[in-house]
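Marked as duplicate of an earlier ticket. Keeping the data here for the record.
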Amino acid sequence: TMAEVYVEEFMSPGCVGCPAVKEMLKSLSEELSGEITVEEVDITVDTSRAAQYGVMSVPALAINGELKFMGVPKKEELKKALQEELDKDGPR
């Protein structure tokens, strides 16, 4: 089976850095081999999930249920984090 990664992208309307993060995730999911599922979480709507992760500001990214980035990550760092998760989930 293909390795899978689930990303929650915490955002809010008018969030300045959010479009950049969205673009980054889009291009990385094309670059990396594996299934990268991205769910946008609007913290103004889904306040409980934001609270659960302790998200204080956006953008923020949780990868496979773990908060990994606050603010806009460097693309290489995000790529590395996604790749590590894909490797974990990949063929043993």
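See parent ticket for discussion. The first helix runs from residue 18 to 31.
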